[in-house]
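Protocol step 4 of 6.
Sequence for undecaprenyl-diphosphate phosphatase (Aliiglaciecola lipolytica E3) entered exactly as in the expression construct, tag removed. Do not edit the line below.
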Amino acid sequence: MNAFGRADTHIFRWIFGVTAGRDCRIIKYISKSGDGHVYLILGVLLCAFDPKDGTIFLYTSLLAYALELPIYVILKKLFKRQRPCDLIYNFRSHITPSDKFSLPSGHTAAAFLMASLLAHFYPSVAILVYIWASLIGLSRVMLGVHYPSDIVAGALLGITISMLSLSILV
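Step 5 output, structure tokens:
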């Protein structure tokens, strides 16, 4: 294993160690707040209650996720990075991963994509939504299904796709 991989694994073990032997209910809820249906509900609600900005927000979000999802799948299949629970001997994550590979983190990509769009259309919530997206990424490491570099890659993917979508539609 190269120096980067060793450092990534070391940081992973340190962060995951915080949750070892503990109830992870709150961390699981934070992670679940990054599930896709939450974003759709938010987009529809913003469209309904803020017809001016909410409508373009919804269209931009739909375009962004239409671009992000296939890129995410291609990257997962291209890198084929094993998850910590599949690679680290005698290790058990707190949850069962949704797919086989870990790079990039899809939850983190989606969270940062949404945070970037929300910050663009509603600047007053920027700090809050970026903290929320960061907590989703951190929760994925704390639950044992991603390495820290997976989170960074997911965040970069989400921000990049949101900026691309904004440049197309806004």
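Step 6, annotate. Helices lie at 3-17, 25-32, 36-49, 51-79, 84-87, 106-121, 126-142, 148-169.
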